[in-house]
Amino acid sequence: MEEKMTKNIMIVGVGGQGSLLASKLLGHLLLTEGYDVKVSEVHGMSQRGGSVVTYVRFGDKVYSPVIDKGEADFIVSFEKLEAARYVEYLKADGRIVVNTQEIDPMPVITGAAQYPENLIEKMEQLGIAVDAMDCLSLAEQAGSAKAVNIVLMGRLSKYFDIPAEKWRQAIRECVPQKFVELNLKAFDLGRTE
Amino acid sequence: MKQLMLGNQALARGLYEAGCSVVSSYPGTPSTEVTEEAAKYDEIYCEWAPNEKVAMEVAFGASLAGKRSFCGMKHVGLNVAADPLFTCSYTGVNAGMVICVADDAGMHSSQNEQDSRHHAIAAKVPMLEPSDSAEAYAFAKKAYELSEQFDTPVIIKMCTRVAHSQSIVDSGERVEPAPIPYVKNIAKYVMMPGNAIRRHPVVEERTRKLTAYAEDCAFNRVEMGDTKIGIITSSTSYQYAKEVFGNKASILKLGMINPLPEKLILDFASKVEKLVIVEELDPIIENHCKQLGLQVTGKDVLPIEGEFSQNLIAEKLGVELPPVKKLGETLPGRPPVMCAGCPHRGLFYTLSKNHCTVLGDIGCYTLGAVAPLSAMEMTLCMGASVSSIHGFNKALGEESEGKTVAVIGDSTFMHSGMTGLANIAYNQSNSTVIILDNSITGMTGHQQNPTTGYNIKGDPAGKIDLEALCRAMGFNRVVVVDPYDLTECDRVLKEELAAKEPSVIISRRPCALLKYVKHNPPYHVEAEKCIGCKSCMRLGCPAISMKGKKAVVDSTQCVGCGVCAQLCRLDALQA
Question: B377 FRET partner, CA 20 to 30 A, in A151, B274, B447, B572?
Fold first, then answer.
């Protein structure tokens, strides 16, 4: 493959968890920072409680809209099992930022499978840097369980050189006025906890 | 202004700036957002039509009247609209007419992965294929000029990765086109044999002119790099090829995919050592090159099925892949499911409990086929449930009539279920059709339809009365049930299956995700009453799971529909 400066962020989770706002925020921020950006989303049937993936890529010039196996610098996961599902997409020195919430998929609900145990430890045993936190509690602390997405963005922001204030500005520009305060709080909790 | 735009949004922006004034479409993933975004511009009249054939004919009518028009659909929608497409290729247009078709290689949300380029070739109309949002925007604007210059409808072919990826677009302002008067022209617009036979040579001559145009048009471009490999590609495949090879290959990037150039390809081929065709789905560019006498690598190494990606192209063309870390265990999958509180669930539970043979249709309710309900045995295309049950019952008679049902959503019924129902009424099979009326087009993300009473902008509109419609067709038995009421569903189903004449059951309750639907407080399990019998688990509700030997309800997902409580003999499920 060509040596390239493109950075890759995968946002994974369960349909309906709010990954679209997270990718909107990232896209907006990175565009403002002057990067070429591509964001690829999933619509339609798989949104209905299925496993969903959003790809965010940025750099001097981005070609492919998708991230492939072995390419992701970051996997940001709204749910533990979903982080594990996409481990193969991580770069050798990539990092996983994961909400420790567990949402049972249908095979577990029907008893056809069990929710796997010790996933964080298993990922760490592969030598992966895993940053795991209970984002749901922090989101509730900020004022809404729906703010898990912004808690995760707060956590992700720690690993970027972009100043926190620019992230906060992007939140102000991407979120409806009445939810700005709540989401700024969620961002700060994710960044500092 | 530079901004990130979804491919579909960029296409809509291009339509707007080109002065498009009439849009008629039927929703279908991954095409839906083009029309939704176009509807945000006040200068464009926008509507959801009942199906793609109607939409294309509306767009044709507007073009005939002298206004630039548009219709959008998914790949299978173009099958429905193929009839007007093939003949408006003969009539040509008055003002520019642009058609968007969005393919779904990989079948993220479709029943097949047909390649729409075949339609453009067969109908002999030009087809443009953007590879990102900036091109979707630019091609949409340019498509109107092409349409008017060559007197033809123009198809813009999107695919999931172009339609649903955001990239940077530098947009401009709308330019109102000069009005084009409608002029009566029977020889051009009345396609009866005597006229059509004179139009066919016009179409062939147009294709010759378009082929000449394709040789040096701005849609097609050569990017010379290393000449050991020359790649001919288009659409999202271009992006993957650039990702893998950068300047280590030369690329002929085709933005106009029908008709294909000849000299341009031969010239490019002469400058490179090895020619590789990178195209998703069918080998259309490849076969064209072979007809030109070129030796190419294509579908001999790259798959004909599914989507491409950078790794797939790298692997198949001998480029090293990045290392990958793997967990040493198989993880449980997470397939899509009916949402908590979905009104379809209660109905499908009833069908499953009564061991019905269920012929299904296209929509969220196709998920009725998934375990644990597993209550659907056939899904083909829009409207096929209603037509097929007639054939099924005509073939088997009493053996199937008393236990077979067709299920179809309200929007799908309007799309192409009505004609099948007319056939049942006319040719009299003892069939039971269930219309799952959730008062919205659900799967594609909540679009209005002729039964909802609202138009694309959410303003009040005409509303078709399903009961009156079915009665007018000749059905004496038309019953409405609430799918949250399991007892009533069971009683009505048994009664209608036993009846010795055709009947329609309308299972009516709005989609639980609609903003105006008020949710009840969540249910919970009283652990001391729960004996772990798993009766409630038979619903396949994502809000209910077993923890240890007891059922638990996830209060963040439960919308309080109460269907599970009706299955609990011990009253353990309480609001």
Answer: B447
